[in-house]
Each structure stands twice: as structure tokens, then as C-alpha cells.
Amino acid sequence: MRDTLPARPNVAICVSTFRRPQGIRALLRSLDALIFDGPAPNVLLVIVDNDPAAPAFADAAELGRASRWPAVLVPEPARGIVAARNRALACVPEDADLVGFLDDDETVAPGWLAAMIATLRETGATVAQGPVVPHYAEAPPDWVEALGIFRLGPWPQGAALHFAATCNCVVRAGFLRMHGLRFDPAFNLSGGEDEEFFARLRDRGGRIVAAEGAVVHDWIPSARLGPDWALRRARRMGNTLGRIARLRRRGRALRVAKGIGAVGWGGLRMLAGLADPVLRMRGRLQLARGLGMLSAFADVVVLEYAPAAPALRPGSGR
């Protein structure tokens, strides 16, 4: 496939931030340190602050002083991850060739963007997905690393993937424009919006491949290192997969079967792991994921961004 990227592509890097002023500044410092073998691409940072009452930057001028790259600062008063991500996409210039997504609790390796661009050139893919390496505020329980709770990848360079995540990916902007792709508001408070977004991208013929060298570092606070957080996340992830199957109106029977299987196998692993904390936790996570998946078919939505209301039924008024 003949590559269509210009020698110096226009890249809009979208970051949604919420009450992480130190995290977003650390990310900006790492983006300042990006290196390229040849001429640098034309980079624009699109920073959407989802807490205008306590913004990470007082104004665009302060953001500009904190970044090597041109940047726009956009407040998004409507609460929720989808509201913030769609605001960022609305601010991507029409002449953008690529759109990148990062989180505000990450930093990028110096060769991150160069590896993303090279991968898209080499493969002609629609999306390049990079690995995520976790770093912990304190030593985690053994099961965290053994089960790869926070780790994403690595994969062989150029390997075909069936998913992408907005914590570390770059997408061809022309594909987004051609298909009018935006994040689904149904996932605004639940999370899982990227899983659903990239499922639709693949339905429209988009290809996702691995960019082995496009590494980001994820900084994990102590509050996420206990079993409660991991179990909530597993339940939400299962719920997301079930909801996507319902929305797409296909694969529903398979998801129900997988949910039942996960509950069964998870329970067995918990019993088999009475003397093995890692196996026991694997079973608990599998059980939670299966229950989350099945709950989607009972119209339950597991919310990740509304701690006071962990689940709702559409139309319930909650």
C-alpha cells in the first residue's frame, strides 16, 4: 500500500485532563523531549480540561509557557470522558493528518511519536497502538504484575490487533473525518468508550497494528493497587463488552456464553487458588468480568466515573 502521509505530517495530540495538574505537566515535559531522526512533524497539543472550576492551567498563555509545542486549551464543563474526548476531536484542525490520544497520568518515551509515524508509514494501517509500561507509587501485590493488571503489550512490531486504547494510540485523521467517528455518549460515565469507538472503526474497515517502540509510562497511585479497584475495573470491562455486543446487534449470544463461562471458570479458579493468591485473584477477576458482561443484558450499566452511583438502568432516573 502506498503511504499517503506527508514528509512532515500535521499531528494533533489530544489529552483530556481532570484534576491532575502535576500529571499533565509531567506529560508535557515528556512531549517536549520527543526526538526524530529527520524533520519533526507539525505537532499541536489539544488539551481539554474537564474541570473548569479548578483548571490545570489558568489560561492558554500558561499552557503555552509549559510546552515546546503549540497548544490549545479548551474547557469542557459537561462532566464525563466522552464529553471531553469529543470536545478534543472537535478542536482538531481540518488539515490534521494524524490524531493521537494520551492520558494525563502518563509520560511518553522520547521516540514515541517517531515510532507511531513510522509504523503507520510501514503498514498503511489506520491506527497504531503502543505498549504501556506501569510504574507504581509503592510495591504492588504480587498478583498485580503476575496478571498484568496495568500493563498493555508489548506486541511484535506491526502485529495486527483487534483493539486500541486511547491511553496510547495514533489514528489517521482522514479516516475519522470520512466516517464521522466520534465517541458514543452512552459511555460518558461508564468508561469503555475507546473499546466501543475502535470496534466501530474496525467495522468500517479500519486496521489497528502494534507500534512496538511507541512506549508510554503509566504512573499508578497507591489507591489503585488493591483488589477492590481491580475488581471494579474487571466488572466494568465485562459490562462494556456486553453493551457493545448489544449496540452492534451481533455477537450477543457469544457474549452471553462467554459471560457464563467466565463466571464458572472464575469460581473454579477461586476454589483451586485457596493456597495461591495469584490464581485466586485471577479467578475473582474472571468472575467479576463475567458478571459484568451478563449484567449488560439486564440493562445494567456499570459506571467508572460516578463513584457514588456504581450502576444504573437506563431510564431509571438515577
UniProtKB/TrEMBL annotation:
Belongs to the glycosyltransferase 2 family. InterPro entries: Glyco_trans_2-like (IPR001173), Nucleotide-diphossugar_trans (IPR029044). PANTHER family: GALACTOFURANOSYLTRANSFERASE GLFT2, RHAMNOSYLTRANSFERASE WBBL. This is Glycosyltransferase. One of its GO terms (molecular function) is glycosyltransferase activity. The keyword Glycosyltransferase applies. Keywords: Glycosyltransferase, Transferase. Residues 13-145 form the Glycosyltransferase 2-like domain. It comes from the Bacteria. Coiled coil: none annotated. CDD domains: Glyco_tranf_GTA_type. The keyword Glycosyltransferase applies.
